[in-house]
C-alpha cells in the first residue's frame, strides 16, 4: 500500500482588513475607502454610514468613479517603482496581457464577494488611513500652521464636551466624525494634544461642576422655602411631593438632595427653638 503524503498547508499571513487609504468623490459627500486586503467600500462621514454597494446618488458617476477605484493612492508609489523596474528589464513577455486579464477577473470576483459582506465600522476603521488624501480631510490642512491646527483641535474637544475625567478611548466617539479631527495627521499627535487638554481642562471642569452644584443647591433651597415644610417634615414626604420638580432633579445625587434637605430642617428646628425661648422670656 502506497502512502500518500499529505499536502503541507501554506503559511498565509492574514491581511489587514482595516482601511489603509481613502479618497473623496468630488461633488458628493461620499469617499472611496481601500482596506488592507484590497477591498473597497464607500463611506459618508456626514451621516456616518459605510456600505459595500455603490450608493444610489453615485449611480451616474460610473466612469470617474471607476477611475478613482482603479487608482488606489496607497499603491501609486509601488506602481511607480514597479514600472521603473519593468522599463529597465531587457524585454517584456506577451503573457502580461493574459495576467492582466486574470487580475481583472479576480478583482471583479472579489468585488462581487465583498458586496455580500458586512462593511466595517466606520468610527473605528476610518480613524487612521495611510497614504493618499484622507476621507473628509479639510482642504486647508496643508496650509494652516501646526499651532493653528492644534488650536482648532482643542476647540473641537471643548465644543464636543470631551470629559477631562475620562479616557481617550472612551471619548473618541464624540470627535472622530468632526472634520477638525483630521487636522492633526497622526494618532500620536491627537493623543498628545488630548492629554495636554485634559490636564488644563480638569481644573476648569471641576470649577464648573462646583458652580453648577451651588446653583442647583440655591434653586433647591428656594423649592424648600416654597414648599412650606415644617421642622417635623421628612425627606420622604418632601421627595414624594416635589420629586418631579426640575429644581429637585437638578441636584443629581440623592445623598445631596437629602443632605440639603436636612440642613434646611436643622435651620427650621433652630428657629423653632429660638421662638419657644423668646416666648418663655415674654411670660
What would you say this structure looks like, in words?
Pfam families: FF, WW_TCERG1. This is Transcription elongation regulator 1-like protein. InterPro entries: FF_domain, FF_domain_sf, TCRG1-like, WW_dom, WW_dom_sf, WW_TCRG1_3rd. Keywords: Coiled coil, Repeat. One of its GO terms (molecular function) is transcription coregulator activity. This protein is of the alpha+beta class. The chain folds into three domains: 19-81 and 100-125, Ubiquitin Ligase Nedd4, Chain: W (Single Sheet), CATH 2.20.70.10; 146-203, Arc Repressor Mutant, subunit A (Orthogonal Bundle); 208-282, Orthogonal Bundle (Arc Repressor Mutant, subunit A). The protein has ten helices and four strands, in the order ββββαααααααααα. The chain has helices at 62-69, 76-88, 95-114, 122-125, 146-159, 168-171, 187-227, 235-242, 246-249, 254-282, and strands at 19-24, 31-35, 40-44, 49-51. It has a four-stranded antiparallel β-sheet, with no helix packed on it. Helix 5 (146-159) packs parallel to helix 7 and helix 7 runs parallel beside helix 10. The radius of gyration is 33 Å and the shape is elongated.
Number of structurally distinct domains:
3
CATH fold field value of the largest domain? Ubiquitin Ligase Nedd4, Chain: W
Average pLDDT, rounded to a whole number, is 75
- Supply the helix-strand structural class: alpha+beta
Stretches where pLDDT falls below 50 for ≥5 residues?
1-14, 79-84, 87-94, 107-118, 120-134, 136-142
| SS strand fraction | 5-15%
Provide the gyration radius in Å.
33 Å
In angstroms, what separates the terminal alpha carbons?
Answer: 125 Å
Helix content: 40-55%
Q: What is the tally of beta strands?
A: 4
**Taking strands numbered 1, 2, ... along the chain, how are they ordered across the largest sheet?**
1-2-3-4
Instruction: Note the run of SSEs as H and E.
Output: EEEEHHHHHHHHHH
Shape: elongated
Keywords: Coiled coil, Repeat
Protein name: Transcription elongation regulator 1-like protein
Coiled coil: 199-226
Domain FF: 146-200, 212-267
Amino acid at each position: 500500500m502506497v502512502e500518500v503524503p499529505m499536502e503541507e498547508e501554506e503559511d498565509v499571513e492574514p491581511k489587514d482588513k482595516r482601511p489603509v487609504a481613502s479618497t473623496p468623490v468630488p461633488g458628493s459627500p461620499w469617499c472611496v475607502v481601500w482596506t488592507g486586503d484590497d477591498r473597497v467600500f464607500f463611506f459618508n462621514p456626514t451621516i456616518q454610514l459605510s456600505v459595500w454597494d455603490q450608493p444610489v446618488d453615485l449611480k451616474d458617476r460610473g466612469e470617474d468613479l471607476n477611475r478613482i477605484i482603479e487608482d488606489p493612492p496607497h499603491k501609486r508609489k509601488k506602481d511607480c517603482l514597479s514600472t521603473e523596474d519593468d522599463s529597465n528589464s531587457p524585454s517584456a513577455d506577451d503573457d502580461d496581457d493574459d495576467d492582466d486579464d486574470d487580475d481583472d477577473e479576480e478583482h471583479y470576483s472579489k468585488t462581487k464577494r465583498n458586496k455580500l459582506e458586512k462593511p466595517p465600522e466606520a468610527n473605528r476603521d476610518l480613524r487612521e488611513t495611510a497614504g493618499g488624501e484622507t476621507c473628509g480631510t479639510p482642504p486647508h490642512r496643508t496650509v494652516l500652521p501646526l499651532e493653528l491646527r492644534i488650536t482648532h483641535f482643542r476647540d473641537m474637544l471643548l465644543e464636543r464636551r470631551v470629559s477631562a475625567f475620562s479616557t481617550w478611548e472612551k471619548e473618541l466617539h464624540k470627535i472622530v466624525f468632526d472634520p477638525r479631527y483630521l487636522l492633526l495627521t497622526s494618532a500620536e499627535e491627537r493623543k498628545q494634544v488630548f492629554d495636554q487638554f485634559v490636564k488644563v481642562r480638569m481644573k476648569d471642569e471641576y470649577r464648573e461642576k462646583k458652580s453648577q452644584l451651588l446653583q442647583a443647591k440655591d434653586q433647591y433651597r428656594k423649592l424648600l422655602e416654597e414648599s412650606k415644610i415644617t421642622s417635623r417634615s421628612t425627606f420622604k414626604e418632601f421627595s414624594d411631593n416635589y420629586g418631579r420638580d426640575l429644581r429637585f432633579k437638578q441636584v443629581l445625587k440623592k445623598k445631596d438632595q437629602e443632605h440639603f434637605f436636612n440642613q434646611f430642617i436643622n435651620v427650621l428646628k433652630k428657629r423653632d427653638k429660638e421662638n419657644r425661648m423668646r416666648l418663655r422670656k415674654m411670660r
